[in-house]
Each structure stands twice: as structure tokens, then as C-alpha cells.
User: Fold this.
Amino acid sequence: MAGTSCNPGSRFKTPIEEQTADRFNIVPKKNAAASPPQPQSKSVRPRPHNCRFTVHITVDSMSILCRFTVHITVDYARPAARRRFELRFETPPGEQAQVDFARFKVHFNEQPDRLRVIWLFSMVLGHSRWLWGRFCDDQKLDTVLRMHVLAFESLGGVPRHMLYDRMKTAVVDEDDDTGEVIYNRSLLGLLGHYGAFPRACRPYRAKTKGKVERVFRYVRSDFFLGGSFDSLAHLNACFTSWRDEVANVRRHATTGRIVGEAFEAERGHLMTLPVMRYPALVAVERKVNNEGMVAWRGSTYSVPDGTDSRIVEVQALTCEVRIIDRGEIIARHPLADTQGSRVIDPSHRMAVPVTETEGSNAARRPLWFYEAVGQRLSSS
Assistant:
């Protein structure tokens, strides 16, 4: 029996589609397989078609006519999008700094059974990649403003533009018609004091601030690797040492430069710090409790003995808490690093004077006097 073979003349011909009982009547063009289907509009959906094909098969010099029905789906697929490579953007020295928060979970040795959620505020200079950061308990507005002041003072200058993510403490809203970003008024006040301008990333475009995003991965994989910390203050002290001894003295993988050396060259391009530090960040009224303490941000601060006002004003500055009564500053305290702290100025607590009450001289009489009194009472 001869091998099965197909008639080349009929194998490579376009099949003839016959009309069926189906409601579709499709007549394919010649050489349809050679010409790809033309893309159609998005509104056109793929439709099924029933097609009949006629095939001639030659077996032992006998020609057999076979007919069969095939159910096919014509799908006008979109052409594959061409890959677009990204262009790395380098900022001039002193032009931009990127700011963001990252969330961390830490077990401190002083409270080993409690898992603390803390936030790392980071500011990275776009040109030199110099890193400044500090761990905080929250992302509230006064924390954001305080971290900016500390970062600018550590840098010894101010970048011209500050790039932010869409965090609520920076970006309040965006105009739907014009696309104009509306920034937080308090943040604008702080940046205006230092002469800087805010910029916001595009929505869902984290790569716009990729310099600070990569820092967070670096911190997780290097700084926290095998680390143990007693408290939030100890964590920040260790992080400062790590920045000075590791992060800011390394050779950056992207730029190929030593971060510290690049920062020294960039420092001269930063704007000069103003003469006066940014004024009070927050001013609120608080009650004085029965222990002579005032609550602020989870911690309590003492007021001097003799303060008769039940309501006082609390001003939270960058690193200081001021308590004001009737326009006069009655207390100054360093800002507590950890919530739940009791900050007491020893000078606020007066020593209780020892006063002699009536009849107190009896305590200084000799013992024989009491013996005599006892004998007289017994004989009477």
C-alpha cells in the first residue's frame, strides 16, 4: 500500500467556503492565509463562523472527496505594542530633592511583645543621592514640617524643588479641568519660608521618584539586616551612624560616584538657609490636669507649680514644646521622641516646706518629762 499523500494542487489552495444554515455567510478571499486580517475598531467583537472545506485525498491511486465542517472564530487582535525603553533623568546639582515615607514594623527590646508600626521620612538629593532620614511615630502634618526643617539644617542648604508623592500632607487635590495640583497650605508656608517650590509626581507613576524609592529597598536589605534596637531613639541613633558610615560614603551603583564626594560638590549649589528658623509649626490650646501636666501628641509636659490657669497654649516647634499662659512663656521642653513619655522640668516642682503646727514643741521635750506625767496620773 502506497503512502498517504495529498494533492499539492488542492492542499495549498484556499478552501471554498459554502453557505450553511448558519446566519453568517462568509466567503473568504483568495490567499486569505497569506494576508493577515485588517485590524478593526474596538467596537467590533470577534464573531464565530461555520465553514465547510473540501479536501481531495489520494490513496492507492484512488481519489476520495472529503467534506467536513469547522467552527472557527475570527479574532482581529491588536498588534503587539512596541517596547519603549526608559530614559534615566539626572537633575542638576542643587535642583531637586525627593521626599517620601516608608512603613516599617519593628520589635523594640524595651517592649518585646509589642509590634510597633513606624515610618521612615527620607529626603534624597537628586544629583548626589545624599540621604537624610529619620524614623517617626506617624505621618501627621506637624511631623512632616518638622522633618523638613531638620533635613534642611542637616544639609546646610535648601534644594530649589521638592518632589512629593501624592501623600495627603503634601497634595490636597487636583483640578479636573486644568490639572493644577493644590498643595497643603501649611507645607507651602514652610517651603516659602525657605524659598523652595513643591512638585508632585504623576498619579500611579512611582518611577518619577525612583531615587527615594530605591533608598527604602536599600534600608530594608542593609540597615535592618540582623539589627536589634532598644527604642525609637536608639533606632534613630543607629540609623544616623549607618548613614554617615555606610550609605553616604558608598560608591553609588548608578552614578558611579562616591555619594559624600558628590554631595560636597553639590552643597555649594543649594540655596542658603534663612537667618531665622521656621516659626511655630502648631499652636493649640490644652488643659492642665491635676498633676500639673499638659498633653501633646501622646506625651505629657509639666507646667510650674502655682499655674492657676486651666487652659494654656501649646506651641510645637521643630525640636521644642513651649507652654504659654496669658501671653508669657511659662515652660520649655524638648520634644519627646516616643509617645507616652512624661517630660518634667525639676524646677517646676517646688519643695514642700516643713511647717511647725500648734503643739509641735511637745515633740522636742525630754523623755523624763513624760515619765513624770505618767507617774502623777497613776498616783491620782
User: Anything to note?
Assistant: Residues 138 and 351 are 38 Å apart (CA to CA). The helical segments are 8-11, 141-155, 185-194, 210-223, 232-245, 259-267, 367-379. The longest strand covers residues 47-59.
